[in-house]
Amino acid sequence: MGGMDSGRFGGLLREWRALRGMSQLTLSTEASTTTRHLSFLETGRATPSREMVIRLAEALDVPLRERNALLEAAGFASLYREHTLDAAEIGPIRRVIALLLESAEPFPAVAVDRVYDVVMTNQATTRFFALLLGPEDVAALGRPNLVRATFHPRGLRRFLQNWGEVGPVLLGRLHREAQRLPASDPLHRLLEEVLGYPGITLEYKPPYVDRSLPPVIPLHLKSAEFEMRLFGTITTLGTPQDVTLQELRIETFLPADSVTEELARRLATRDR
Questions:
Q1: Residue 89 pLDDT greater than 60, yes or no
Q2: Which of 113, 130, 134, 145 is most buried, by CB atoms within 10 Å?
Q3: Is the pLDDT confidence value at 270 over 90?
Q4: DSSP state, 254?
Q5: Predicted confidence band at 209 (pLDDT cuts at 50, 70, 90)?
Q6: Cα(75)–Cα(263) distance, rounded to whole angstroms?
Q7: How far apart are CA 196 and CA 148, in angstroms?
Q8: Which of 47-56, 74-83, 162-171, 254-263 has the lowest mean pLDDT?
């Protein structure tokens, strides 16, 4: 166990409490402590136990990665491990993810990490993007990232017939996710990048008044050769105790009409 950095721990604790909009009274009640003790922890006048750090993190709904940071700032070892997806320890989970992606065929499905970088896909995703994006587009987009592929001028945005509806909703979702994380989180950098793209006008930018997420986000894509209507669904793992797995999500794009379903099945047949 390392030494506690009381100033850093107290600062992190105050930051997370502010991000969650919780008063000291509310947080102390949720974490089964007193406002006096919580105040002392935030100012560095008291040292938390390992159990207290965990209770506070749970009450604040802090992601596992940042829970480790709180523990380290309090002088304790990290509790939650972080594996790469190709690590042997999570091989069975990786297989489950692969099966989930395969089960979506012939419709696109991708697994993305906390900043929407694509870490796994099914073959339908490759077919789908090949219909829309050429080699120069792919090169301009750089590392596969679902947000960048949607908002970038060389991405899907130019094919979305309902961009005025979809753009603000998706950007609002990204903004709300970033708001729940410290300013140093890379999700904020991705949001800043997207806000800098040409054509992202004021209607797409904060404060996103009345931009609550609808039950289903429809995507109406059209090119000279085809037309598709899809809607997206998001799947996350239940209660993972691994940083990488907690941050993982699977986004599946299902047909919203029979024409799109028929097109997807026809494209799949070509690969056989």
A1: yes
A2: 145
A3: no
A4: E
A5: very low
A6: 57
A7: 12
A8: 162-171
In this structure, what token pair is assigned to residue 207?
A: 């404060």
State the pLDDT confidence band at 143, using cuts at 50, 70 and 90.
Answer: very high
Domain 6-73 top-level CATH class: mainly alpha
Residue type, 146: L
Which residues have a Cβ under 8 Å from the Cβ of 169 and sit 6 or more positions away?
A: 211, 213, 214, 217
Residue 139 above 50 pLDDT?
yes
For residue 253, which phi and psi values (nearest 5 degrees)? -115, 110
Task: Enter the tokens of residue 103.
Answer: 């089960």
DSSP-assigned states of every residue in 71-94? HHHTT----SB---TT-GGGHHHH
Q: Which fold has domain 88-270?
A: Beta-Lactamase (3.30.450)
Position 21 pLDDT exceeds 90: yes
Residue extents of the structural domains in the chain: 6-73, 88-270
Q: Is 215 helix (H, G, I), strand (E, B) or coil?
A: coil
Asked whether 267 and 125 are in contact (CB, 8 A), the reply is no
Look up residue 248 and give its amino acid.
L
Q: Which helix (H) or strand (E) holds 120?
A: strand 118-121
